[in-house]
Amino acid sequence: MAQRLALRRLLLLAPRGTPSSAFGTSAGRASTFNVQDGSDFQDRVVNSPKPVVVDFHAQWCGPCKILGPRLEKMVAKQEGKVVMAKVDIDDHTDLAIEYEVSAVPTVLAMKNGDVVDKFVGIKDEDQLEAFLKKLIGA
């Protein structure tokens, strides 16, 4: 619990817009960010000029640990045409309720602030590529 609180404080103290690579993850993932709060979600997801993939996940979710990196990799391949927001349902229960997330992982495709597509569970890379191409209109 103390470790989780320390991590939360670290993330809250990080400057907004800090790419995930600043936390030691691999470069090229700047198209992925962790949602900090409802206001951040509104600014960076709902008001985004680009399509957004929203990954609702949890630390304790095994399938989320498989899907998350796979989805990040596929989003990075889209070369900036789409961004990915990661929402931990334990930290942001209000967003999970608002977007009717009843199981994790749940992934939403959002365009112009509206949910245009959604899936629950794990997908392989071909399925994720088709999901992303549909979202960006390729």
UniProtKB/TrEMBL annotation:
Pfam families per record: Thioredoxin
Gene3D superfamilies to which the protein is assigned, alphabetical: Glutaredoxin (3.40.30.10)
Top-level taxonomic group: Eukaryota
One GO BP: cell redox homeostasis
Single annotated GO MF: protein-disulfide reductase activity
Keyword terms: Disulfide bond, Electron transport, Redox-active center, Transport
GO CC aspect terms: mitochondrion
Domain Thioredoxin: 21-137
PANTHER family linked to this entry: THIOREDOXIN, MITOCHONDRIAL
Family named by the database record: Belongs to the thioredoxin family.
Record protein name field: Thioredoxin, mitochondrial
Species per Swiss-Prot/TrEMBL record: Campylorhamphus procurvoides
